[in-house]
Amino acid sequence: MTEAVQIEVRDRVAVLTLSRPDTGNAIDQEMADSLLRATLHVAADDAVRAVLLTAQGRAFCVGGDVKAFAAAGAKASALVENLTASLHMAIARLARMEKPLVTAINGAAAGAGFGLAILGDVALAARSAKFAMAYGAIGLTPDGGATWLLPRLVGFRQAQRLALTDERIDAQEANRIGLITRVTDDESLHDEAFTLARTLAKGPRRALAQTRALLHQSLSNGLETQLEREAQGIAGAIAGSEGQEGIAAFIARRPADFSSL
């Protein structure tokens, strides 16, 4: 059976591809479980130094498989609990793993797909991409981490706008409000995203992991706590092999080589 999330590793970048294009990459239990398996695998694989998440077809991910919800009838609540258990574990691992994450948003991102799309440390969107929370229209509440990440990216007022009105916005508006990193031409999206992920994979993996963690911690820590975390982080980094290589390369006026560290 073909996995609903495909894995390909190239140049130390793991490309995770949502692969239910006929459904708009709607998330059913199989997709959620497959994403969790893929995420656990690449997070633990020392050969992987960056992760790129994208999708097949015209949509990035339209969210939960509403047809499956309808078919479950009275068992829909149990179905959703099981589905979100796998999905949310995968999202938490993608957010906390010690590897940078790039998302390449090739089309519509709605519902849980909205949360997945904006999860990237760098989120690139095709010009044709569209974004919508889309929960209220079917009487549901958000999942996929969107209510945690959205206010942090765009501020509380814009988060209210998107979450409560179900407004559909295009890639240009998403870029304007800070929901994504930048917009690319549709035909160059995957190449640009992979090139960026490959550049990150060549970087200082421990320093990038610590930087990622510091940024996540910053919105819940007070200033003094964050300053102490930063002090501990940079002191540890300068004593490590990456810091030593980076400083030596700077003094010698050559590019740093972190590939074997």
What are the SSEs and their pairings?
Elements: E1 5-10, E2 13-18, H1 29-44, E3 50-55, E4 59-61, H2 66-72, H3 76-96, E5 101-105, E6 108-110, H4 112-117, E7 122-126, E8 130-132, H5 146-154, H6 156-165, E9 169-170, H7 171-176, E10 182-184, H8 189-201, H9 205-218, H10 223-239, H11 241-252
Parallel strand pairs: 2-3, 3-5, 4-6, 5-7, 6-8, 7-10
Antiparallel strand pairs: 1-2, 8-9
Helix pairs in contact: 1-3, 2-3, 5-6, 9-10
- CATH fold-level label of the largest domain: 2-enoyl-CoA Hydratase, Chain A, domain 1
- What count of structural domains? 2
Helices and strands: which structural class? alpha/beta
Strand content: 15-25%
Label the CATH architecture of the largest domain: Alpha-Beta Complex
* Annotation, overall tally of beta strands: 10
CATH C-level category of the largest domain: Alpha Beta
